[in-house]
Every structure is written in C-alpha cells, then in structure tokens.
Amino acid sequence: MHPLFMGICSEANGLDTRYTQVERMGNEGTTNGSGSILTYAYRFRPVATDDIRGDLEAMKEGNIEQYGKFTQWDQYSPKSRIEDYEPLQERQSVRAAASLNWTIIEGLNFNTNFMLRRQWGQNYTWKGALTNDYIDANTGEKLYAGSADISKSDAWAMRWSNTLSYMFDLGENHSFNILAGQEVTNSGGSSMGISASCFPANFTKENAFAMINQYDPDKGSTSTSSSKTLPERIMSYFGRVNYTLMDRYLFTFTFRADGSSKFSPDHRWGYFPAAAFAWRMSEESWLKDTDWLDNLKIRLSYGQVGNDGISSNLWSQNWAAETGYKNMYYSGENALPTYKYSASQMVNPDLKWETTITRNLGIDFGFWNNRLSGTVDVYWNTTKDLLMQTAIPGITGFTATYDNVGQTSNKGVEISLSGVIVDKKDFRLTAGVNVNFNRGNVDELADSVTGLYGSNWCSSATTPAQDYTLMVDQPVGLVRGWVFDGIYTVDDFIYENGVYTLKEGVADSKSMYQQLNGIPAGARPDGQTAYPGMGKYKDISGNGVVDNEDITVIGDMTPDCTGGFNLNAQWKGFDLGAYFNWSIGNEVYNAHKLASMHGGKEAGLFENKLAFLKDSFMPFTVKNGNIEMLYTPSELAAANEGATMPFGYQENGIISTIGIEDGSFLRLNTLTLGYTLPQQLTKKAGISNCRVYASIYNVFTLTSYSGLDPEVNTNTAQGGAAYPTVGLDWGAYPRARSFVVGLNLSF
Question: Taking residues 284-288, what's their average pLDDT?
Fold first, then answer.
C-alpha cells in the first residue's frame, strides 16, 4: 500500500445507521376564548343534574344551548370531551451517516462526513360527535359519528462536510492546528391530506379512516390538499486557526461564510468571524507548584453566528391555483384555474441574515485536588437584524410581512460550582449549584414596528387587544393592561330614585367594559359605566376617567435569577441523587384567572369559577331557593361586606394586575435511588457491572403561583401573535409526574 493511503483506515471511519418509529397521542391544543379542555375543565358546573332546580329544558334553548352546553350538559363533561378527540401521530425515520478520515502525511488529515435522512409521518385525527356537536339537543342522540382527517408527509435531508486539517509545531513553544472546510446541506419534502365529516352514526373511527369517502354528502363535506416544500439549501466555507504558546496561551481564530437559499441572491451570503483567547494561569511558574491550586484559566471570546430560521418562500412570490368553481374561467369549453398568492405575508426580497454577536469573559478554577471547582462567566450577547413578522398597511393587499425588525441583547453572569463535601471509604457526598443572572433588552426597533401585539386569549374580546409590547431599553415579555384598584362600593355613589351616580372625583371606568350583565336597566345615568361591584382601575393619566390612556406595563415575565442545584450521595453500593431547579423574580400572566372573571349571559349560567372569586361582589342573594336582585345601598353593602373582587359577568377579558402573579418556584425535578450489586457476585455471571435504579420526575414544586404550573411554555402561535407571548398561562398542560425503574448492565 502506498504510504499516502496507509492512514485511511482508522477508528474515525465508519457507517452509522439508525431507524426510529414513534407513536404519540397529542392534545387538542389551545383555543382562543377557552384554552385547552383540561384547563377549561374547572368551569364545568359543580352542580349535579338532579340537583338543578327549575326546568332543565331552559338549558337547551336559544343562546344558552349554543354557548353554555360545554359547561352544562352532562354528555359534554371534560372527561368525555378529551376522550372524544384523538390526534394520533406516527413518525418513522431512517438516518445513515458515513465518515472517512485519511491521514495523508503526519499531521495532515482529511475528513469527510456524509449524512442522509428520510422521514415519513402520518396524522390520523379523529373528532367524535361531542367535539363536532353532532348531538341532538332534545334527545341526546348521536346524529353522526364524527369527522376524520388524514395527512401524510415525507421529508428528506442531506449534509456533506469536508475538512482538511494540519497540526505542526515550531520549536518547543509554538503549536498550530489549522483547519479549512466546506459544507453543504439540502432538505425538502411534500405532504398530502384528506378530510371528511358527518360519518354514519354507527361508524367507528377505524371505519371512517378505512372508508373516508362514506361521509354524508348532504350534511357533511370533504377536502383534499397537497403541498411541496421549497428546498432549503445552505453552502458553507469555513476556516479555523488554533495557536498555543508555551502550552499556556491559547488563541483561536475562525471564519465562516454561509449562503442560504432562504434569501435573495443579493443578500444570500453572511460572513461570521470569531476569536478566542485563554490563559492557563495555573501553568505559570509562580503558581504551578502551589498545593491548593489545581486549575486556573481565564477565557475571553468574541464571535458572530448567523440565523436563517424562516420559511423559504418569504423573499420570492409564489402562486397557488384556485380550483373552486367560482374562481375558474373558461377558454372555449375548457375550465381553467385562476391563481392567488400562496403565502399570507407579502414577500420581502431585502431580507438578510439575522446575526448574533457573542462576547464572553470566563474563569475556570479548581482547588484542593478539585474538591471545589467551578466556572464564572460574564457575557453580553447581541442579536441584530431580527427576522420577525411585522404589520404593513392593508392597502398593499396584505397585513403582514417579514423583515429585519431590530436588535435585542442579553447580559448576565453565570456561576457554576461543584464540590466534594464528604469523601470516605464507604461514603461520598457531592453537591453542585449553578446560578444565572440574565437580563434581556430590546436595543432597537425598526420604524415600521410599533412593538404592540396581542395574545388574543379571549378572542376578539381581549381588552386591550394588544396585551404585549416590545419597548426599546426594556426586556421582551412585558404585559400591558390596567392597574386594579379594588371595586366600586356604594360609598362611591350618590343614590337617588334608584340611580347610582358617581361622586365627584371618582373616576369612571370607560374603555375596558364592552358589556356587563346583571346591572338593572336605568340604574346608571346616561354615559356612566361604573356601578357598585364593578372593578375599579387606577386613573394613571389623571384625566378623570379610566380609559386607554391608563393602559400601562403591568407585568415583566423575565426572572431576576434562575438556577439549579444537585446533591449526590453514595454509601457502599447505594446511590442517591436529587436535582432541583428554580426561578426567582419572574411573573406569570395568568389568563385562566382573568378568564374566570369573564362570563357571558348565556355561557356563564351555572358555570364554575376559580376559588379566588369567592370574595367577589354579589348583586343578588338567594331567598327561599330563589335568586333575588339587590338594589338599595343598604342591601348591597350588607350582602357584600368584605368583598374584594368584582362580580364576574363581564363579556370581555379585561387585562389587569389581577392576572399578574409571582412565578417564582423551586422544583425537585428528579429523585433517583440506585443500588449496584457487588462485583464478586456479578462477575460469576460474566457481568462487570449491574445497577438497578428507580427515578421520580417532577417530584414537587414550591411556589405561591395559583395556577397549575409556574413553568409555563411560550406559545409563539398563540392567537396569531407576531412575537413570543412570554409567560402566558393559557391552555398549557402541567408537567406530569412520572416513575421509571431501570437496570444498567455492563459485560
């Protein structure tokens, strides 16, 4: 064999293949106005059907039947609704990766890596009679079985990278490692779907999926769809130089040039340099021989990295055929389709790479034979040319486009410590802790960006509609609304001839109330909104009324500090591990709490409320089993002594400080107990190590937050929001507690 090829066979060469198949049942997601079925479940009436007084048929009339059935009818219980919706997802994938390493001459290495992945997915979504409201209001009979939706998709991706590296020394003090490389990625896919509704009442979901064309053509409908993903391609060239001086001073310089198909030819390429320096102080002669110091290194780095995380169809206009009968035109006897824009946003050929600039100063240390070790990092990261959606005038024919809208930054300190507390022959105890103080900031916003956007959790009744804001020199995740200032009491009014007129100097609440149920006609003077028991909000502007000028930032979802700690103990063959995480200083936007104050005149009938409303103002009382309205100041005052919350029959979701809560928490994430069998027992069976263990995940959470889980997820799709709705608790399922028993074997 020629010497040039002798190094081609090495441990770095190989072929790795993997096949995965996953089936999972999803959930129904979040619905504007209702949240998820689980988080809406508390609204289901707490009164059994047999205990409801009066004519039950009244629950099945007009708007009460239309809006109130999900909280009133037994067959629409949350349990039945969850069981009636089955979004089954099936995923299969095959991945193959091959690598080849060739040592051309000593120190000169060529490496090539090729990866190919294919994925297939199927979604089978079944919505039964309850979900589709295929129930006869009078008899409860199931009119149709439900609806079925089948979609299939396939995707592919490939990645090929090649690098050439050369390592060499110049004398005893200078070491170099130079690398140059090239990489290409390519991906794409397609999908197809079909759906149909109103299957025969005796159909099962299996019948429907097998015979999807057997729907009722008179009452039901069917639709088909297909799409082909635009390919996503990146071509990259990169280089790196590592230089080590006297094994103590380390320099790294890198440079990348990335070209993405997601940008127009004029803006396709992005260029991203980086540099780093490290000083091994512990290797200096004046520290090297110290008994107490094992490691001391100072690190300094600066770099840029690009992001092209947008769709491929945002810079060039694409078209789709309109095949509906009304949208076709005829050429002779031939029906021909017309065309429409395929995307809902206006394209922008001026889009360019989003760039994140990282700056870091760090210290690594270890003392006393590494009984105590850790790191301290101070960082400042800036992301400029943010790729995000922004609103545009409707005269363009569109309402939104993607653009490079501004700049954000993150500054902070991260500290990590680990230590050996006890180290005996049969007992060892170690601990670790990490703390992160981070503060985000909006540095710049483009002139076209107002920064206002909405979660739309209460649909069109969300008030104010734009409950989130991006503000320059403030962090992301600010919530807007009104400051709650108690309730209007009878002492705020002059009562004459059955009319409650606000006293001079008491601000009226004008802008937030669209409609409020339960107030007698004529009980307020014309033009006045306030009435005893309604929510009172602060007049920040001082103009004498509470209106849109009094909307202010009421919540900051950014924590002051996050972190975690762990404890690990070993005693003979037993081991115990506990892993915690925490967050301090962040707030949670509890939309569920505000939704409990929201109640229409129909949907609110018999609806359950959250416990905090037990202290709400009541404009009625119950006498002899009948509801009676209260009118006079003495009646209302006597019945509502100690009331602190408004009565919850407003027909819009008012955003106020009532829904902003402290989200700080301490969670025991994982608790694990294990036992390793003695080797003198296991080696007789040819086993070098045998460990059995049991773990509990999400053991407990300590928090003052009143919701289901203080660690709410950011839902970027909530209500069509243009930017992240940070800290919003609306429809999120809480984390499950899970138990795992396992066995580790080594031979």
Answer: 80
CA distance 645 to 609: 12
The tokens of 304 are what? Answer: 């840029």
Q: Which residues pair with 138 in a beta bridge?
A: none
CA dihedral 279, 284, 290, 292 (to 10 degrees): 0
First-to-last alpha carbon distance for the chain, in angstroms, is: 37
Rounded to 5 degrees, φ, ψ at 501 are -110, 130
Which amino acid, one-letter code, is at 737? R
pLDDT of residue 357: 96
Helix ranges (H only) for 672-713 are: 679-682
| Three state DSSP letters for 458-482 | CHHHEECCCCEECCECCCCCEEEEE
> Where is average pLDDT lowest: 54-68, 427-441, 549-563, 662-676?
54-68
Whether the bond into 464 is cis, omega within 30 of 0? yes
DSSP element (H, E) containing 67 = helix 62-72
Q: Which residue has the tokens 């790191």?
A: 375
Give the residue from 235, 238, 285, 224 showing the smallest Cα distance to 260.
Answer: 235
Residue among 435, 355, 430 nearest 387 (CA): 355
Residue 368 backbone zone (phi > 0: left; psi -120 to 50: alpha; other: beta): left
Nearest to 39 by CA among 596, 481, 583: 596
C-beta separation of 660 from 470 below 8 A: no
CA distances 560 to 358, 375, 411, 696, Å, are: 21, 20, 12, 29
What are the angstrom distances between the C-alpha of 392 and each of 395, 402, 450?
9, 10, 11
Structure tokens at 660: 């902003």
> Up-side HSE of residue 194: CA atoms within 13 Å toward CB?
8
Structure tokens at 686: 């040819």
Residue type, 741: V
Structure tokens at 94: 């095959």
CA distances in angstroms from 609 to 40, 63, 75, listed in the order given:
10, 20, 20
Contact between 307 and 358 under an 8 Å Cβ cutoff? The reply is no
Residue 10: pLDDT over 60:
no
Residue 492 DSSP SS3: helix
Over its C-alpha atoms, the chain yields an Rg (Å, rounded) of 32
Instruction: Report percent pLDDT > 90 for the chain.
Output: 55
Amino acid occupying residue 745:
L
* Averaged pLDDT of the chain: 87
Instruction: Please write the tens of the pLDDT for every residue from 288-331.
Output: 778 888 889 999 999 999 999 888 888 887 766 665 555 666 66
Residues 261, 585: Cα–Cα separation, whole Å: 42
What tokens appear for 183 in the block? Answer: 């990489």
C-alpha–C-alpha distance, residues 210 and 147, integer Å: 13
- Assess contact for 143 and 215: CB atoms under 8 A: no
DSSP state of 46: S
The tokens for 32 are: 């504007």
Give the span between the Cα atoms of 433 and 416, in whole angstroms: 6
Burial (0-12, 13-18, 19+ Cβ within 10 Å), 527: exposed
pLDDT of residue 373: 93
At 112-166, the pLDDT tens digits run 999 999 999 999 999 999 888 898 877 778 899 999 999 999 999 999 999 999 9
- Cβ neighbours of 390 (radius 10 Å): 22
CB atoms within 10 A of CB 533: 24
Look at residues 155, 142, 252 and name the one whose alpha carbon lies nearest to residue 198: 142
Please compute the mean of the pLDDT values over residues 91-102 and round it to a whole number.
Answer: 94
The DSSP annotation for 131-179 comes to: HHT-B-TTT--B---EEEEEEEEEEEEEEEEEEEEEEEEETTTEEEEEE
Residue 419 to residues 294, 416, 554, 566, Cα–Cα distance (Å): 14, 10, 41, 11
